[in-house]
């Protein structure tokens, strides 16, 4: 799992270019931020990526030295959300549609070849987390995406093998099992057909 500094840098860089990003038609936006030494390159900027970074930051136990930095970036982020409310909701809706398609594609790939795709779940489940984080950001998801997510969740619940929280334990408090049940299990590499 990535460090607090990794997520703080991503969120800070997103805040700096948020206005340009929100008024564009793009879901994925380039960012020039460099990761902390030894950590992976950043993905392209997305609204749901920013929401995920925010959720991870606020989930962590932090030191008194980190508290000011965290509070400052969260405050800036939340103020930007309010300042660009209409553009924010529009972008959130576009991100939701994109992530719903991507999540559906992963589940289909898993259904086509469980053994080949089961281990990808640990990474790909971030798409489902992002969908959950986007829900309160949009007025109302379309009936198509809502129906798709209900269907995918039903399938996932029927096969998910409970294994406890699958991401870094340091952020578990921000992702309670009641709302993020999909982070508390893994996919079986083989499903017996009945």
Give short descriptive properties of this protein.
mainly alpha, single chain, globular, 194 residues, two-stranded antiparallel sheet
Number of strands: 2
Mean pLDDT: 94
* Computed CA radius of gyration, to the nearest angstrom: 17 Å
* Domain tally: 1
Strand content: under 5%
Spatial ordering of strands, largest sheet:
1-2
* Major sheet summary line: 2 strands, antiparallel
Distance between the termini: 37 Å
> How many helix segments?
8
Order of helices and strands: HHHHHHHHEE
The poorly predicted ranges are none
Secondary structure category: mainly alpha
Helical content stands at 55-70%
What overall form do the CA principal axes indicate?
globular
How is this structure best described in words?
With 194 residues, the chain is an all-alpha fold. The chain has one domain (1-194). Helices cover 59% and strands 2% of the residues. It has eight helices and two strands, in the order H-H-H-H-H-H-H-H-E-E. Strands 1-2 form a two-stranded antiparallel ribbon. Helix 1 packs across helix 3 and helix 1 packs parallel to helix 4. The longest helix is centred in the middle third of the chain and has 28 residues, at 85-112. It is globular, with a radius of gyration of 17 Å. The model has no long low-confidence stretch (mean pLDDT 94).
Summarize the helices and strands and which ones pair or pack.
Blueprint (H helix, E strand, L loop, with lengths): L3 H13 L1 H6 L23 H13 L4 H20 L1 H28 L1 H4 L3 H14 L8 H17 L1 E2 L22 E2 L8
Antiparallel strand pairs: 1-2
């Amino acid at each position: 799992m990535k460090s607090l500094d990794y997520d703080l840098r991503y969120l800070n860089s997103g805040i700096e270019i948020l206005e340009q990003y929100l008024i564009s038609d793009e879901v994925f936006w380039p960012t020039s931020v460099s990761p902390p030494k030894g950590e992976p390159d950043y993905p392209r900027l997305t609204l749901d990526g920013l929401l995920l970074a925010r959720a991870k930051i606020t989930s962590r136990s932090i030191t008194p030295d980190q508290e000011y930095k965290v509070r400052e970036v969260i405050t800036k982020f939340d103020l930007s959300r309010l300042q660009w409310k209409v553009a924010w909701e529009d972008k959130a809706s576009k991100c939701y549609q994109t992530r719903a398609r991507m999540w559906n594609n992963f589940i289909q790939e898993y259904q086509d070849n469980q053994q080949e795709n089961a281990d990808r779940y640990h990474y790909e489940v971030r798409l489902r987390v992002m969908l959950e984080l986007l829900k309160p950001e949009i007025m109302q998801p379309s009936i198509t995406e809502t129906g798709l997510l209900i269907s995918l969740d039903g399938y996932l619940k029927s096969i998910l093998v409970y294994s406890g929280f699958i991401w870094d334990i340091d952020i578990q408090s921000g992702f309670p099992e009641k709302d993020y049940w999909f982070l508390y299990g893994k996919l079986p590499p083989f499903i017996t057909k009945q």
